[in-house]
Amino acid sequence: MCIERGKNVYYVVIDLEWNQYHNPMWTPTSRSGVKMHEEIIQIGAVKTDKDMNPVDTFKMYVRLAGGRRLDRYVKKLTHITDSDIASGEDFPVAAPEFAKWLEGVDAVFSWGADDRRVFLNNLAFHSLEAPACPWYDGQKIYAAQKPEHGSLGLKNIAQEEGVYVNLTLHDALNDAILTAFCMKDLDIEKGIKEYNAPKKTQENAGEPMPVSTSKTHRHQSQQAAWEEANNGLLHCPECMQSLEWSGDEKGTIEKWYKPATCKTHGEFIIKGEFLGQKYSQLKLSFYKPTEDIMQMIEGKPDSPAKKRRRRRKKKAANKPESISGEEMLARAIAFAAEKHKEQTRKGTSVPYIVHPMEAAAIVATMSDDACVIAAAVLHDVLEDCQGVTQDDIENAFGAHVADLVAAETCPAPENATWKERKQATLDKLVIADEEQLMVALSDKLSNIRAMKRDYDKIGNKLFERFSVTDKKMHAWYYRSLKDVLEPVSRFDAYSEFTKLVDSVFGKKRTPKNEEKQSN
């Protein structure tokens, strides 16, 4: 997007609150077959000038239709009540009113990508058109322009920026205002210009980085995942308009490429990949039709190393064996026990396998999916066990388990400091999905349990067993984990984790100037 010189520039920062439907039986489904896993209950937005100075605000509650009730966790998090919702408008009324308020703005921003996805899904559910304005992830722009950032949670960024606003979080308008203040020092025009610039991945410089990616929820069938993607995710990454399929599909059922066109921004190539074994999830990656992408689609000759990787993956995908959840867990335990043998917990004589087994037990309180529990058992084998590769895990347990274990593994850059390694872990968790966060929470809760037991016995001498002996550094890391793991705070494991962190490191003090504003 190019900003016209001499024209008044207006941005909008938006935040949404939504109801959640975890049980597929309760998920609302429209007559056209669109499933709405998250239903918007509050819209909050602040309109600003080009320097992020507020000039107008928008706030509206949205009624739940069909006799649906607020989720208990949503009530606790947002403090929104049934009477608040009853006072709102129906979404088919609220959305056009909000779209009218957006007329003339140059760009919309939200903190993270979820708000855009949920907004588009709700529009598709009600067969409504999306507003014709570009929508950007402000968190992504912030991370690009301030690489020395800490946790990308909104609350943490506000503290780092010295933004002390006496506002209650998880209110849509309050969060939108706080986001605008956090973005105030960014070069917004530069962020927009560079937002969709093609990049190369660090892992493989020969493959282009997509303009954007999105994933469906996990479904019982590939057809259901395809329907969600087609009805809720097929929108231009540079604006919110629907894309229209414009050519033939190439590839396989599991991985394919297909062109789609936006009336304003032209053609994109969409790569679709079905993920998972027990459940199906569709990942869409959006590319501009560059020469690199067209070569990738046409199947130009690969290097011998790529051919070997493809053969290994094909061999794993064609395995005739289908194992049950019980068998998968038994194999995962045996695999982890073998790889971790002769390893002990840091500073103790406790066999290391005790830790991943405890992590698996913790995950089992949050999910009964054998893949997620197996990933908790295996979560350290890539990082701590020499010779184990992601291909080994995929061949033995499937792509979904391998992806979850890889997400929990954070290879440290060469010569990275302790804080840089921990920051890399935090950054990875900020963009993790719920299953990845479950595995991470199980790992961190097991760790803080062990720290609490030893801390009660030996006090601050506990930290002498670590490479970094400064207790304050460990306090920073674990308090940051509380922020990035908050999306799974509805689970009892998260409550236990936060209490143990506060017990070992103490509660974080409120800055004096924040205390003054709250009085």
Topology, element by element:
Layout: E1 10-20, E2 38-49, E3 54-61, H1 72-78, H2 82-86, H3 91-102, E4 107-110, H4 114-125, E5 135-137, H5 138-145, H6 154-161, H7 172-182, H8 188-195, E6 199-200, E7 208-209, E8 212-215, H9 222-233, E9 244-245, E10 250-251, E11 255-262, E12 266-275, E13 281-287, H10 291-298, H11 304-317, H12 325-339, H13 354-363, H14 370-378, H15 381-384, H16 390-397, H17 399-408, H18 418-430, H19 434-458, H20 471-484, H21 492-505, H22 512-518
Parallel strand pairs: 1-4, 4-5
Antiparallel strand pairs: 1-2, 2-3, 6-7, 8-13, 9-11, 10-11, 11-12, 12-13
Helix pairs in contact: 4-9, 5-8, 6-7, 11-16, 12-14, 13-14, 13-19, 14-17, 14-19, 16-17, 17-19, 18-20, 19-21, 20-21
Largest sheet: 6 strands, antiparallel
Regions with pLDDT < 50 over 5+ consecutive residues? 1-6, 200-205, 301-321, 510-519
Distance between the termini: 44 Å
Mean pLDDT: 84
- The total count of helices amounts to 22
- DSSP helix fraction: 40-55%
User: Structural class of the secondary structure composition?
Assistant: alpha+beta
Give me the count of strands. Answer: 13
The proportion of residues in beta strands is 5-15%
Tell me, what's the shape?
globular
Radius of gyration: 24 Å
